[in-house]
Amino acid sequence: MVIRRWWRAYRGLRLGTRLALGLGALSLVVFAVVGTVLTAYMREYLERQLADQMKLVQVVQSKDAAANGTVERKPYYGWYTAVYDVSGGGSADLRTPAQVPADSRALTDLARTMARSDEDLTRTVRIGGHGPYLLRACEVEPGVVLVSAAPMGDVEDTVRRLITVQVVAFGLALLALVVFGRRMLRRGLEPLSDMASTAHGIASHDLTESAARLSLRADGRDGGKEVAELRTAFNTMLEHIDASLAVRAEAEQRLRRFVADASHELRTPLMSVRGYADLFQYAAANEPAERERHLARLRAEAARMGVLLDDLLLLARLDAGEVEAPLRWEDTDLTELVRQAADAFRAGRPDRPLTVTVTAGPAAVRLRLDPQRIRQVLDNLLTNAAVHTPPGTKVSVTVSAAPREVRVSVADTGPGIPAADRERIFDRFYRVDKARSRDRGGSGLGLAVAGSLVRAHGGTLELGGEPGVTVFTVTLPAITVTRPVSTGTRPAAAR
Fold it and tell me: Which of 153, 231, 244, 353 falls 20 to 30 Å from 206 in CA-CA distance?
């Protein structure tokens, strides 16, 4: 349970603190291993030095024992020296006098062992009341063994002091490592904290507003390559969200404008229908001519409202991706389709000279398309050129073919489209004529319908030209170019 509580408390700490504690734990393990190895090495070194010293002393003591039978020269203070007579039966008899402790069993046991060994022996033992000793046995002559005992108190004291120094030094190093490591980690993790603050700031924004934008960004504070990559990805995500919010705001604004314009466009014919219906109801029964006039106006307003609703329905179906429903694909001669539209334009607009130019070469441009919808696009573009230009304005249509696309350009030399209106010229219900005059402005759906129909065919509709010249270019993907025909320029005088 205690370990589990500690673990929960550890997981509740901040990342920098957890990393610092983990670094401290790892350092503690490293310090423990280094200290253990260093202590063991120092102990072994000191014992080896003491053994070498005992070996040198025993050279002198062996000569003394061989000459006098025992060691008459006094050993170092605290050392013990004993000479034993040993036999092959395993007995060891101490020669006297001898410098031995009260409990000399350890020395006697080493003497017996030496009797069966051909090499000098060294052993560490603990003699009761005297502490640890290093024993060394060597042969003086056959059957005589010299055993010396040197106290290891100095070695133990040195090892204890070494351990104390290591504990203090490693403890201070560990404390400094945790404190300064925590500070460095906190500084290194500041970019992450900045990104977290940015995320909290974004969360506090009201993103439901249509004009909501994300002005917050994670700053460029240094944090290493990984943090820089994370910061770049974070800012890229914010830019994507910001762009999505901008698109959403624009879409909502366009939707509001569309609803307002649609309501405006539908209200006028509805009011006209209601007014003519009232007039028809209260018209005198003996005036059939008046009733017929009101009925004709009712039919005209209903037809106008029907055209508007048909355009709206077509745009909605095209926006929903129902391409196959509104389009009926056929192999069609685009050149012939353009000439039919031009003939209809000349018949309805005799006051505007029109020329048709085909630069596709001696071949008919045959494409797979919906002829009725492309004819509708051409009629809309020609009608747009007629209603926005004064009588006598020249209008031209040019058809050109390339290996992968076919272009139809409708140009007029009228007053042109102001630069401020070019970006919104394809918006629904948008008219350059702000007065919404229906004799010259229409409903504002013609270019929107034309653009949607061209896109449904996989093409584009673009506005070009310069001051005094307006050019709409329809680009369609080419399928094939076959069947030679005669082409040329058909000026307005030829109609």
Answer: 231
